[in-house]
Design goal:
This protein has four helices and nine strands. The strands form three sheets. It has a four-stranded mixed sheet. Strands 1-6-7 form a three-stranded mixed sheet. The protein has helices spanning 2-14, 27-40, 85-91, 127-135, and strands spanning 23-25, 44-51, 57-64, 72-76, 79-83, 94-100, 105-110, 114-117, 124-126.
Length: 136
Protein backbone atom coordinates (compact mmCIF):
# COMPACT_ATOMS: atom_id res chain seq x y z
CA UNK A 1 0.00 0.00 0.00
CA UNK A 2 2.82 2.36 0.87
CA UNK A 3 4.57 1.57 -2.43
CA UNK A 4 1.48 2.51 -4.43
CA UNK A 5 1.34 5.91 -2.66
CA UNK A 6 5.00 6.50 -3.48
CA UNK A 7 4.39 5.62 -7.13
CA UNK A 8 1.31 7.84 -7.29
CA UNK A 9 3.29 10.76 -5.82
CA UNK A 10 6.10 10.22 -8.31
CA UNK A 11 3.62 10.10 -11.21
CA UNK A 12 2.04 13.36 -10.02
CA UNK A 13 5.45 15.08 -9.96
CA UNK A 14 6.37 13.85 -13.44
CA UNK A 15 3.04 14.93 -14.93
CA UNK A 16 1.46 13.50 -18.04
CA UNK A 17 3.85 11.43 -20.12
CA UNK A 18 5.09 13.04 -23.30
CA UNK A 19 4.01 10.98 -26.25
CA UNK A 20 6.01 11.10 -29.45
CA UNK A 21 3.94 12.64 -32.22
CA UNK A 22 2.81 10.05 -34.74
CA UNK A 23 3.25 12.23 -37.83
CA UNK A 24 4.34 15.77 -38.57
CA UNK A 25 3.86 17.64 -41.83
CA UNK A 26 5.96 20.25 -43.52
CA UNK A 27 4.18 23.36 -44.84
CA UNK A 28 4.51 21.96 -48.38
CA UNK A 29 2.93 18.63 -47.42
CA UNK A 30 0.08 20.29 -45.51
CA UNK A 31 -0.61 22.62 -48.43
CA UNK A 32 -0.72 19.72 -50.92
CA UNK A 33 -2.91 17.56 -48.64
CA UNK A 34 -5.27 20.51 -48.14
CA UNK A 35 -5.48 21.02 -51.92
CA UNK A 36 -6.14 17.31 -52.58
CA UNK A 37 -8.81 17.02 -49.88
CA UNK A 38 -10.54 20.16 -51.09
CA UNK A 39 -10.43 18.96 -54.71
CA UNK A 40 -12.02 15.60 -53.82
CA UNK A 41 -14.27 17.08 -51.11
CA UNK A 42 -13.05 14.53 -48.55
CA UNK A 43 -12.43 15.22 -44.86
CA UNK A 44 -9.46 12.87 -44.37
CA UNK A 45 -6.40 11.38 -45.99
CA UNK A 46 -5.55 7.89 -44.64
CA UNK A 47 -1.92 6.81 -44.29
CA UNK A 48 -1.12 3.13 -44.19
CA UNK A 49 1.61 0.65 -45.01
CA UNK A 50 1.43 -2.36 -47.26
CA UNK A 51 3.72 -5.38 -47.59
CA UNK A 52 5.24 -4.63 -50.96
CA UNK A 53 8.51 -3.90 -52.70
CA UNK A 54 11.97 -5.33 -52.30
CA UNK A 55 12.44 -4.05 -48.75
CA UNK A 56 9.19 -5.09 -47.11
CA UNK A 57 6.80 -2.12 -46.70
CA UNK A 58 5.44 0.66 -48.84
CA UNK A 59 3.38 3.70 -47.83
CA UNK A 60 -0.23 4.00 -48.97
CA UNK A 61 -2.35 7.17 -49.10
CA UNK A 62 -6.09 7.04 -49.68
CA UNK A 63 -9.03 9.38 -49.25
CA UNK A 64 -11.38 8.64 -46.37
CA UNK A 65 -14.89 9.78 -45.47
CA UNK A 66 -14.77 8.80 -41.80
CA UNK A 67 -12.39 7.81 -39.02
CA UNK A 68 -12.11 4.09 -38.38
CA UNK A 69 -12.53 2.82 -34.82
CA UNK A 70 -8.79 2.33 -34.28
CA UNK A 71 -7.38 4.96 -36.64
CA UNK A 72 -5.04 7.53 -35.07
CA UNK A 73 -6.12 11.06 -35.98
CA UNK A 74 -3.39 13.59 -36.73
CA UNK A 75 -4.57 17.19 -37.02
CA UNK A 76 -1.84 19.55 -38.06
CA UNK A 77 -1.61 22.76 -40.08
CA UNK A 78 -5.30 22.66 -40.95
CA UNK A 79 -5.42 19.11 -42.37
CA UNK A 80 -6.56 15.80 -40.91
CA UNK A 81 -4.72 12.58 -41.59
CA UNK A 82 -5.77 9.17 -40.30
CA UNK A 83 -3.05 6.63 -39.56
CA UNK A 84 -4.12 3.01 -39.89
CA UNK A 85 -3.54 0.95 -36.73
CA UNK A 86 -1.22 -1.57 -38.44
CA UNK A 87 0.91 1.31 -39.78
CA UNK A 88 1.25 3.08 -36.45
CA UNK A 89 4.31 1.26 -35.12
CA UNK A 90 6.10 1.71 -38.46
CA UNK A 91 5.46 5.44 -38.90
CA UNK A 92 5.58 6.93 -35.39
CA UNK A 93 7.75 10.06 -35.43
CA UNK A 94 7.69 10.35 -39.25
CA UNK A 95 7.82 13.68 -41.04
CA UNK A 96 5.77 13.96 -44.24
CA UNK A 97 7.05 16.31 -46.93
CA UNK A 98 5.98 17.12 -50.48
CA UNK A 99 8.51 17.55 -53.28
CA UNK A 100 7.54 19.24 -56.53
CA UNK A 101 10.34 19.86 -59.01
CA UNK A 102 11.14 19.22 -62.68
CA UNK A 103 11.75 15.50 -62.11
CA UNK A 104 9.07 14.52 -59.62
CA UNK A 105 5.99 15.48 -57.71
CA UNK A 106 5.49 13.25 -54.68
CA UNK A 107 5.07 12.90 -50.96
CA UNK A 108 8.29 11.95 -49.17
CA UNK A 109 8.42 10.35 -45.73
CA UNK A 110 11.36 11.00 -43.42
CA UNK A 111 10.97 8.03 -41.10
CA UNK A 112 13.26 7.65 -38.06
CA UNK A 113 12.14 4.00 -37.76
CA UNK A 114 13.41 3.08 -41.22
CA UNK A 115 16.27 0.59 -41.08
CA UNK A 116 16.76 0.59 -44.84
CA UNK A 117 15.26 1.48 -48.20
CA UNK A 118 15.40 -0.11 -51.60
CA UNK A 119 17.39 1.63 -54.34
CA UNK A 120 14.36 3.20 -55.99
CA UNK A 121 12.97 4.47 -52.66
CA UNK A 122 9.64 2.70 -53.17
CA UNK A 123 9.81 0.48 -50.09
CA UNK A 124 11.35 0.55 -46.63
CA UNK A 125 12.04 -1.70 -43.66
CA UNK A 126 11.67 -1.04 -39.93
CA UNK A 127 12.90 -3.01 -36.95
CA UNK A 128 9.38 -4.46 -36.60
CA UNK A 129 9.39 -5.52 -40.25
CA UNK A 130 12.75 -7.31 -40.02
CA UNK A 131 11.77 -9.01 -36.74
CA UNK A 132 8.54 -10.39 -38.18
CA UNK A 133 10.32 -11.51 -41.35
CA UNK A 134 12.84 -13.52 -39.29
CA UNK A 135 10.03 -15.24 -37.36
CA UNK A 136 8.21 -16.33 -40.53
Amino acid sequence: MKASRVLAAAAARVGPAMRKQVLTLTEEAASRVHHLLQQRQKPFLRLGVKARGCNGLSYTLNYADEKGKFDELVEEKGVRILVEPKALMHVIGTKMDFIDDKLRSEFVFINPNSQGQCGCGESFMTTSTSSSAKQS
